Amino acid sequence: MGKTLFQKVWESHSVATLSNGQTQLLIDTHLIHEVTSPQAFGMLRDLGLKVAYPQRTFATVDHIVPTDQREEPFSDSLADAMIKELNRNAKEFGVTYFDLRSGKQGIVHVVGPEQGITQPGTTIACGDSHTATHGAFGAIAFGIGTTQVRDILATQTMALSPMKVRRINVDGELRPGVYSKDVILHIIRLLGAGGGKGYAYEYGGSIFDGFTMEERMTVCNMSIEGGARAGYVNPDEKTFEYLKGRPYSPKGEEWDKAVAAWRAVASDADAVYDDVVNIRAEDVPPTVTWGVSPDQAIAVNEQVPTVESGTNPEQRISIQEALEYMKLEGGAPIKGTKIDVAFVGSCTNGRLSDFREVARFLKGKKVAGHVKAIAVPGSQIVDVLARQEGIDQVFTEAGFEWRGAGCSMCLAMNPDKLVGDQLCASSSNRNFKGRQGSPTGRTILMSPLMVAAAAVTGEVADAREVFSLSA
Question: Which of 444, 286, 466 shows the shortest CA–CA distance to 368?
Fold first, then answer.
């Protein structure tokens, strides 16, 4: 009987089975940032411990770093203190640190792949829930808490419960104006925000075979929004081509050996899965959220659900709560809903290909007068490459603010925040209450091109209509 990639990686990294049934798992690569690491390093000091394998830990700043005022000291005293603390910890414990002066700083889940640190067949952990992004390379990647950050720093291992594997096949051909972001929002809508509990998701089918690495990263990134502990795509020639020549990728003879090992770690043709879900690509529409959970999503040309459409009392209460918070009317079209802010960026959609695709259609257009629009590259390298192509000029000429690299408006840990009950069309990953900084701020998740369409029209719009795409 064949094995899945998940089974192969889990078994090869299992150090021991603990008395509670969990596995003590070796973690190949540990990624850290300024928010969840200070307490972990503090615990090491209290225990008199060193970082066991500092060469396996890589640090950057992303969550709390400002995207406009980039010179230190920062006006936000907390941000300034946290970044200084990360700098101190990296120096003291010998950890590689991509700081603001390095030219390599950025969102941790953008930096890892572009540096070639993320590699197939490895285990990766980070004190950030969207670590599943790295699964696009055939890695098994987990988001962890601060206590587990401490454990990995001290032992290079962590305790995890075994999980099942669900294969999600998407086959066929996506229609014009439908992107990888729509695919994952559609999957989450179908399976639910808790549908992946206890599972790792393996994504496959002709759509994933055809996806670029950056498109695969977008889908794997939001596995956690579907309740899965991890999400991954089997490595293939696109994976190897992406990694070849990157700073931390194997070189020379080691490269050939690595590729051979990476091929072998892919799921076997006769692998057995705990569950299989099949989706037709043609059934995936441009998708937007309407509520306060990522699974509260609909096609852009659908109506917002009514309370009565709930199939049970719990669901009806959930719909009512979401409608009230989002200030939407059940049964009304989502298209035409006025927006106040437009955000392109985040670890979900802040890569070069995201900005390049939007720039194709945004050129010559103007952001609506009442909309504040910001574009935030996922890393300093993305910023440089975008500037070389003139992408930043396309955005700024249209009325977007082009910012420095960071998490920005994805979450409320930096100055980029909503005010009052502003509604934001966002290419990020979470639409929770207060996620973007204001306790009454509202978020509608969508693809980067749909964000651009909303920015231009000043309301939720179908990008296919705004940019004359054939449906």
Answer: 466
371 within domain boundaries? yes
Tokens of 139: 């890695």
Write the DSSP symbol of residue 106.
B
H-helix or E-strand spanning residue 406: none
pLDDT level of residue 260 (50, 70, 90 thresholds): very high
Domain holding 103, by residue range, is 5-265
d(CA 44, CA 143): 20
pLDDT value of position 232 = 98
| Distance in angstroms (rounded) separating the CA atoms of residues 262 and 120 | 6
Q: What is the mean pLDDT of the chain?
A: 97
Location of structure tokens 């929002």:
185
Q: Does 118 lie in the same domain as 53?
A: yes
CA atoms within 13 Å, Cβ hemisphere of 438 = 16
The C-alpha atoms of residue 296 and residue 445 are separated, in whole angstroms, by 10
Q: Mapping DSSP to helix (H, G, I), strand (E, B) and coil, where does residue 8 land? A: helix
Angle at 122 between CA 120 and CA 123, to 5 degrees: 135
Q: Is residue 283 part of a domain?
A: no
SS3 239: helix
Residue range 400-451, pLDDT digits in tens: 999 999 999 999 899 999 999 999 999 999 999 999 999 999 999 999 999 9
Position 288 scores a pLDDT of 98
CA dist 467 and 361 (Å) reads 6
Question: Total domain count for the chain?
Answer: 2
Asked whether residue 65 falls in the same domain as residue 211, the answer is yes
Is-contact 469 182, C-beta < 8 A?
no
160 assigned to some structural domain: yes
Query: Is residue 329 located within the same domain as residue 220?
Result: no
pLDDT digits (tens, 9 = 90+) for 63-110: 999 999 787 888 888 888 999 999 999 999 999 999 999 999 999 999
Amino acid occupying residue 334: I
**Tokens standing for 115?**
């540096």
What is the reported pLDDT for 471? 54
Per-residue confidence band for 317, with pLDDT thresholds at 50, 70 and 90: very high
State which H helix or E strand residue 368 sits in.
none
